């Protein structure tokens, strides 16, 4: 990091066209104070990604899939946009959800669709079209009891509707909900 900062300092002082691009989530900006000079450089030229509109979210979902040769259904795109549109930390959650959906869709060999989203816990199975429920139920019946319990917890938490839910990765490619209190407790436990 010091090499990057020193390079930027020299480039500014001597008016040399050197550009350094760093990206980070805004919740880590406070930790930049550990590096002498970094907060000043960030303050000098920072750019925050604004909240994305529906069309931007669609583009963020669809274009990488197309560019990488994967297929994604329009109804999955619409559902993801609907689910993520009002949330916080949209992009990291979306990135994680799409990664898990891609894995569930046999590493992208199948078209990513609503059933894969339900299989990773992103939506209740009851929201699937009737013709896809048997396939989901067959898959669900093969799950170990521990993973079935995670899905039951997801359904219970969704039924509360008023409770803020944050998502984190759990073993077995499941997106597991946790409350803010649980999330903070887990973070503190992992940091100690």
What structural keywords apply?
192 residues; two-stranded antiparallel ribbon; 9 helices; 5% strand
Compile the SSE list and pairings.
Layout: H1 2-13, H2 38-45, H3 54-67, H4 74-84, H5 90-104, H6 114-119, H7 133-141, H8 145-160, E1 166-170, E2 174-178, H9 180-191
Antiparallel strand pairs: 1-2
Helix pairs in contact: 3-4
Structural overview:
By secondary structure, the chain is mainly alpha-helical. Helix content is 54%, strand content 5%. It contains nine helices and two strands. Strands 1-2 form a two-stranded antiparallel ribbon. β1 and β2 form a beta hairpin. α3 crosses α4. The longest helix has 16 residues. The radius of gyration is 21 Å and the shape is elongated. It starts with a helix and ends with a helix.
Distance between the termini: 25 Å
| Strand/helix succession | HHHHHHHHEEH
Structural class: mainly alpha
Q: Looking across the biggest beta sheet, what order are the strands in?
A: 1-2
Mean pLDDT: 78
Q: Give unreliable regions as ranges.
A: 162-181
Number of DSSP strand runs: 2
**Coarse morphology:** elongated
Number of helices, counting only DSSP H or I runs of 4 residues or more: 9
Tell me roughly what share of residues is in helical segments.
40-55%
C-alpha Rg (nearest Å): 21 Å
Major sheet size, sense and barrel closure? 2 strands, antiparallel
* Percentage of residues in strands: 5-15%
